[in-house]
Design goal:
About 0% of the residues lie in helices and about 35% in strands. It has about 90 residues and is mainly β.
């Protein structure tokens, strides 16, 4: 998955249907938070689209380490009931 905080030098990314995607990606070690409500995802499924994914960001330019996904009450703040898939 594409991670947050990557530079423009990496170029444009165009995922295809086989990719897993995140609506929001945050770097928890940099204090990022995402507060979400009333999210509607059209044309995807919960198996392919993660609502909020948490990473450990770095300053090296490497892909950050994935720490987890889903609501955690601190960095990814939302209720699963606030998300619908169409």
């Amino acid at each position: 998955m594409a991670a947050p905080g990557q530079t423009d030098e990496e170029g444009h990314r165009t995922p295809d249907e086989s990719c897993d995607l995140s609506v929001v990606g945050i770097n928890s070690n940099y204090g990022d938070t995402a507060k979400l409500s009333d999210v509607t995802i059209v044309g995807g499924s919960s198996e392919k689209i993660t609502v909020c994914e948490c990473f450990e960001g770095n300053s090296s330019g490497d892909e950050p380490t994935e720490l987890g996904s889903g609501p955690d009450g601190t960095h990814c703040v939302y209720d699963s009931s606030d998300v619908t898939y169409q």
